[in-house]
Design brief:
The protein is of the alpha/beta class. Helix content is about 35%, strand content about 20%.
Length: about 400
C-alpha cells in the first residue's frame, strides 16, 4: 500500500477564497450568512437565508470556448482545482496528461440554471434555451468532467454525486486510488452552486432556519435554540499525491491522509442513524490503525438540524468520550452541500498545522440531547495534535470520515 499526502489545497467559500481570509473571519466569528432578497419571489418558501460566494469571477485566462460547458458549479470546481494545482506546484506538469493523474470530485447536482432549461422544455413544450452544452452543465458529473477536460487529465474520473458527502468521498476515493497504486496524483474534492431550489429541498422537511431578519444568528449547530440549517455554496480541492513522488519532486507536504471510512445506514433516506455513523468513524480509525485517543479534534458535519446534530454527536461521543474537542465549520458558511467535505477537510488541515481551531458560531447553550463532548464555543482554541478527523453525513444514510496526520 502506498502512502498518500496532501501537496495542494484551495477553496472558494462564503467567508473567503484563501486561508488567510477564512481564518480571519473564523477568528472574528464573522459568518457569511445573509438574507437572500431574491428569494422573495418564491411563494411557499419559508427561509430567506443563504451563504453565497459574493466575489466570484473566472479569471481572464478562461476564454469563452473554455467555459462554454461550465455552469456555475463547474466553474467553482475548476477554479478551485486550478488554485490547488498551483499550490501544489503541479499546474502544467507533464504528469497531469500521463494517465497517472485523475480526478475524484462531485456535487449534489449539476448547474441549476441548466436543469431549469430542461424543466422549461417539459412544462412549456419548447426547447427554447437549450443548446449543445446544456446537458454538460446539468449532468451530475459536470464538475469532474470539466476539471478533467480543462487540465487534460487522462487518469480516472470518479464522480461523487452523493449530496453532503460528495466532497469527503471525493477525497476518500482519491486517497484509495493512490493508496492502491492505481494513480499517482488525484484531484479530490467537491463543489456546489447556491440555488433556492436547494433551500426548498430542506424547507419541505421543515429543516431550514427562518431567522430571516437576523441572519447573523443562524445557523446554530448543537444549540438547543437552533431552528434549522442554511444553504451555502463553494468548492474545495485537495491535491493528493503518492508520497515518494511528492518527495522526489521536492513538494511541500501539508498533511498525510491516513484514514478513510464510509458506509450506509440502510434504513431511511433522510433520518440519520447514530449506530452506523459510529461504525463509519471506527472504520476510519481502523484504516489509520489508530486508537480513538490519538485524535485531537473532530470537525463536525454540524448542520444545525435536530436529528442530525443529535445523531452525529451521540455517535462521536460513543467513539471518543466527553473530552473530544469539536466544532462545526457550517456555522460560518452554511451547508455548502457537495463542497462541505472538501472545505472542512482543508480547514481541518490548516488548523492542525497552525495549532488553532475555530469555535462553532452562535453556540450558546448546548442541546442536552446532544452527545457529551467538548464543544468549542465563544472563541477559537489552541490545540496541539498530530491527528484530526473530519466527518460528513448525507441523505441516503451515507456516512464518511477522514483522518489527516500532521506532516513533521
Amino acid at each position: 500500500m502506498k502512502r498518500v499526502v496532501v501537496t495542494g489545497m484551495a477553496g472558494i467559500s462564503p467567508i473567503g477564497n484563501d486561508w488567510q481570509s477564512i481564518q480571519s473571519n473564523l477568528k472574528a466569528m464573522k459568518t457569511g450568512i445573509v438574507r437572500m432578497d431574491d428569494w422573495d419571489v418564491y411563494k411557499g418558501l419559508n427561509t430567506r437565508l443563504g451563504a453565497p460566494v459574493t466575489d466570484f469571477e473566472m479569471p481572464p485566462h478562461f476564454g469563452r470556448k473554455q467555459v462554454r460547458s461550465m455552469g456555475r458549479v463547474a466553474k467553482l470546481a475548476v477554479l478551485s482545482a486550478e488554485m490547488a494545482l498551483e499550490n501544489a506546484g503541479l499546474l502544467g506538469d507533464d504528469i497531469l496528461k500521463s494517465g497517472l493523474a485523475g480526478v475524484s470530485h462531485g456535487s449534489s447536482a449539476g448547474d441549476s440554471l441548466a436543469i431549469s432549461d430542461f424543466g422549461n422544455m417539459l412544462i412549456s413544450h419548447t426547447t427554447d434555451g437549450l443548446n449543445a452544452n446544456s446537458y454538460i452543465k446539468m449532468m451530475s458529473h459536470t464538475a469532474p468532467v470539466n476539471i478533467g477536460v480543462y487540465f487534460g487529465l487522462r487518469g480516472r474520473v470518479i464522480t461523487t454525486s452523493t449530496a453532503c458527502t460528495s466532497g469527503s468521498l471525493g477525497i476518500g476515493y482519491a486517497y484509495e486510488a493512490i493508496k492502491s497504486g492505481k494513480q499517482t496524483v488525484m484531484l479530490g474534492g467537491g463543489c456546489e452552486g447556491l440555488c433556492a431550489s436547494q433551500a426548498a429541498v430542506f424547507d419541505t422537511l421543515y429543516a431550514t432556519s427562518v431567522k430571516n431578519d437576523a441572519p447573523h444568528l443562524s445557523p446554530r449547530p448543537f444549540d438547543k435554540d437552533r431552528d434549522g440549517l442554511v444553504i451555502g455554496e463553494g468548492a474545495g480541492t485537495l491535491i493528493l499525491e503518492e508520497l515518494e513522488h511528492a518527495q522526489a519532486r521536492g513538494a511541500k507536504i501539508h498533511a498525510e491522509v491516513v484514514g478513510f471510512g464510509t458506509n450506509s445506514d440502510g434504513c431511511h433516506v433522510t433520518q440519520p442513524s447514530p449506530e452506523t455513523m459510529e461504525i463509519a468513524l471506527r472504520l476510519s480509525l481502523k484504516d489509520a490503525d489508530l486508537s480513538p485517543d490519538a485524535i485531537g479534534y473532530v470537525s463536525a458535519h454540524g448542520t444545525a438540524t435536530d436529528r442530525g446534530d443529535i445523531a452525529e454527536t451521540q455517535a462521536t461521543a460513543a467513539v471518543f468520550g466527553s473530552n473530544m474537542p469539536i466544532s462545526a465549520f457550517k456555522s460560518f458558511t452554511g451547508h455548502t452541500l457537495g463542497a462541505c467535505g472538501a472545505l472542512e477537510g482543508w480547514a481541518a488541515i490548516e488548523m492542525m498545522n497552525s495549532n488553532w481551531f475555530h469555535a462553532t458560531a452562535n453556540l450558546e447553550n448546548v442541546d442536552p440531547d446532544c452527545g457529551e463532548l467538548d464543544y468549542i464555543s465563544g472563541e477559537g482554541r489552541v490545540i496541539e495534535t498530530e491527528y484530526v478527523m473530519s466527518n460528513n453525513f448525507a441523505f441516503g444514510g451515507i456516512n464518511s470520515s477522514l483522518i489527516f496526520k500532521r506532516w513533521a
